[in-house]
Amino acid sequence: MPETASSALPAQAQAVVIGGGIAGLSVAYHLVQQGWRDVVLLEKNELTSGTTWHSAALVSPMRGTRAQTALARYSGELYECLREETGVETGMCRCGHLNIATSQERLKELKHTLTLMNNFGLEGHMVDAAEVARRWPMMRTDDVIAAVWTPSSSRADPSNICHALAKGARAGGATIVEHAAVTGIARQNGRVSGVETSQGHIATTHVINCAGLWGREIAGMAGQRAPLFACEHLYLLTEPMAGVTADLPVFRDGDAHLYGREEVGGLLVGCFEPNPKALPLEKLPQDAAYILLNEDWDHFAPMMEGAIHRIPDLQTAGVRMLLNGPESFTQDNAPLMGEAPDLPGFWYCCGMNSAGIVLGGGAGWALAEWIVNGAPPVDLSGCDIRRFPAALDTAQALAERIPEMLSHHFSIRYPGREPATARNIRRSALHGRLAARSACFGARTGWEKPLYFDPEGTVAPEDLRFGETAWQEAVNREACAVREGAALFDQSSFGKLRVEGRDAETLLQQMCAADISGFDRAHYTPVLNDAGGMESDLTVTRLSETEFLLVTGTAQLTRDQAWLKSHTADHFVTVTDVTSGLGTLLLTGPDARTALQKITPEDLTRFAFGHAREIEAGPVRVLAMRLSFAGDLGWELHVPTEMMAAVYDALMDAHPGIQPAGAHALNTCRLEKGFRSWGHDMGARETPLEAGLGFAIDWSKDFKGRDALETQRATGLTKRLVSLTLPKHSWATGHQPLYRNGVLAGEITSAAYSPLLDKIAALGWVELGSMEDRDLLADGYEVEVGLERFPAQLHLTAPFDPRGERMRA
Asked: Which of 285, 523, 741, 794 is most deeply packed, by most CB within 10 A?
């Protein structure tokens, strides 16, 4: 059967893929590679007729995260192999990529980019303007300072790649049905049961949403969310031009918001402009294929001016067209992948952010393994649909936030940039009081979270830079208060789950590595998968024989609730999100007991570390836990939301010396103490033994992942998460390469300046060489930041209070 032929709709399938673009065809291809033969792909028009056909098809392995880089590398390798496997020419041309800098700040960014490439094991070179001119003779280079040259980058033919994937999928047994519009998703007994189409019903237990622009609409049919939104994307196509050859490198000029490459003897010059145009789907023809929007020369004019400056021959080149096509984007420039948290069997692979070709091959591979084997081959927590709360999936929020994020596509990636749109959606009960004390807020999973306080009004949050931040002194003041007095953090964004029912203890003992059975304790525990990897870490407090309160990280709530609920089938138990009903205060520092004692009759000298119980705090009864993520004496106070203000006022009035503090100071303090943060320092592919959390495992009971940990205990560790300190002037921030005796051996995952240590405190993975304590301590370490290496000291215990005496005081 030719790869363009369409088949009849079967009555049932093991999996139904919705969407015939690069994502859907890659998923179908890889599902059959995994051995699933009964796979059906539905396309409402023709293959590639959505957004894939007009992709610029740049295949550069370097992405902003390790996970997306892994997907991109796989895509490039796959497209090369498809030629041999299917006989379809994919148009892959390994022409290389030049990323140029025309400003000193852009040059700093390129140095950090090259450092990240070193961390990911990618080849890249800093080259001068003369080398740029040699590789791109038509380019004006008198204002070019330098460029990063990536020789492994390619460009491709998007339609032919898709036809190759279709041919490979069909050869493996998949059925592709064109002109089959999806009209509904059937559900039964809490999971997917089928798909309704314009050609009839098809029964299935797995539906994969690869519908691109229409992904949110398809998700809505299943009662699910897909927080993506469309924007216009423009690029210029010229007639053939003298001097343009097929091996001309792709170029990127971030300062001019431009990229470009060869296209049929001419040039394709595109932009990600700083003022993108949002595109509500109701403005698009619902059933049309190969949709293009009107040429918008007025909007493109500033970009065209920059393009002519960079490539003067464009001024006289013939123009084939100004292509204006719709593309779908997400709120954080990462795709939507994984299983819906509320509907087993409904999967996502959409929201490719104009990177469908470079990510699509790898995304299909990773999702197919996830579906078939239960876990992806790389850590995809940053792409997991569960990272987004429902609060951010409204048309208004998406229409505001996504164009803003797209406007920064070519912005210099300074640390600390906060979005300006779709704000003030979730605010704690203390928001007004904190704002009155000059809190500077950041957006965290829809929450307004205090980052630092600026009572003097001297910090300019928009003053972004590499190195020391504009708000560092404010953070120092708050971090010092934690170590020298008392600081108060509003942690209301922490996720809270109530697990209730006669089988609640049984479920939690199965899911938690620690013993959580004891009363009056806040049990810290890893939550593991079958491979021993950490799906989460959280605290569990038993409230009664059948009731437990779980407190987890702000970004982990949806994920944790879905993970627990997916294991409740054989248990009489409910898992309920109660985050909105409970606010949280963290009072911490050596004066914390003195401050809290002023508003409670409880004898706090008898309140031991790790314990939890209800106490009076001013006029309110609260659940107090003797814990502190800052690693000092402290209490978490969990308070009914409507009573938060009363507790806050009582504390601040009773002990005026309390320092209001924000997330940046808490991050500094937890790094001083070596406290790990899930999603930053560890994830589902790291075990608690590797992460140095073996103390939280109860080996006397059975729990999910125990067998894998037993094996690891017997065979030994091949990597370890350790504390490190670096010179202050390194200003490391995390995700920089770590060298052991001069050889790349891992990376630092989190880092912040510590005024207590007058150094950068960091956590990082050592993944090369002996993991024995004496060998780790004997070797020398360096961390690379912006192409410069700095000496690092490895610590097997926390740099601050290694014996935990302050916490337990």
From this structure: 523
Amino acid at position 463, single letter: D
CB 43 within 8 A of CB 27: no
pLDDT band at 2 (very low <50, low <70, confident <90, very high): very low
Query: CA 764, 525, 712: angle at the middle one, nearest 5?
Result: 60
Contacts of 637 (CB under 8 A, 6+ apart): 584, 585, 586, 587, 617, 622, 623, 624, 647
Contact 658, 650 (CB under 8 A): no
**Angle 30-35-36 from CA coordinates, rounded to 5°:** 80
Same domain, 651 and 776: no
Domain that residue 109 falls in: 97-154+230-327
Q: How many residues does the chain have?
A: 809
Q: Tokens for 168?
A: 């490979």
Query: What tens digit of pLDDT does each residue of 442-453 get?
Result: 999 999 999 999
Q: How far apart, in whole angstroms, are the C-alpha atoms of residue 645 and residue 662?
A: 17
Per-residue pLDDT at 1 = 34
Residue with tokens 């601040």: 652
Report helix, strand and coil shares of the chain as percent, to nearest 5: 30, 30, 40
Other CB atoms within 10 Å distance of the CB of residue 84: 7
CB 624 within 8 A of CB 617: yes
DSSP codes joined into one string, 177-202: EES--EEEEEEETTEEEEEEETTEEE
Q: Are 461 and 418 in contact (CB under 8 A)?
A: yes
CA 684/CA 303 separation, integer angstroms: 42
CATH number of domain containing 739: 2.40.30.110
Distance of CA 479 to the CA centre of its chain: 27
Is 660 among the domain residues?
no
Give the number of other CB atoms < 10 A from CB of residue 142.
7
Copy the structure tokens of residue 177: 């049905």
**What backbone torsions phi and psi does residue 586 show, to the nearest 5 degrees?**
-115, 115
Same domain, 49 and 129: no
Encode pLDDT of 553-562 as tens digits.
Answer: 999 999 999 9
Rg of the chain (C-alpha set)? 27
Q: Quick check: 3 pLDDT over 60?
A: no
